[in-house]
Amino acid sequence: MQEAKKNVFMSIRQSRFITFLNKVISSPVGIAIIGISALLSNMFSLELAMYIFVGIFALYVCIFADDFLPLMPLFVFCYIATSKNNNPALSTDTVFNNNSYLVIICILAVCLPVVFIRIGLDKNMGYKKLFTQKRKLVLGMLILGVAYMLSGIGSQGYLSTVKNNLIFSALQFLSIFLLYFIFSATIKWNKASKSYFAWFGVIMGIVVSLELLNIYIVEGVVQNGEILRGRIDTGWGHYNNIGVLIAMSIPFAFYLACKKKHNYIYIILGTILLAALFLTCSRGSIVGGAFIYAVSFVFAFFKAENKKSYRITSAILIALATIIGIAFLDTLVKLFEKVPTIINSSNESLSFNDSSRFKIYKEGFNAFLKYPIFGESFYPKDFVPYDWSIIESFSSLIPPRWHNTIIQILASCGLVGMLAYSFHRFQTIKLFVKKRNLEKTFIGLSIAVLLITSLLDCHFFNIGPTLFYSMALVFAEKINSEDEKTEETNK
Question: In the chain, what is the greatest distance between 2 CA atoms, to the nearest angstrom?
Answer without folding.
Answer: 82
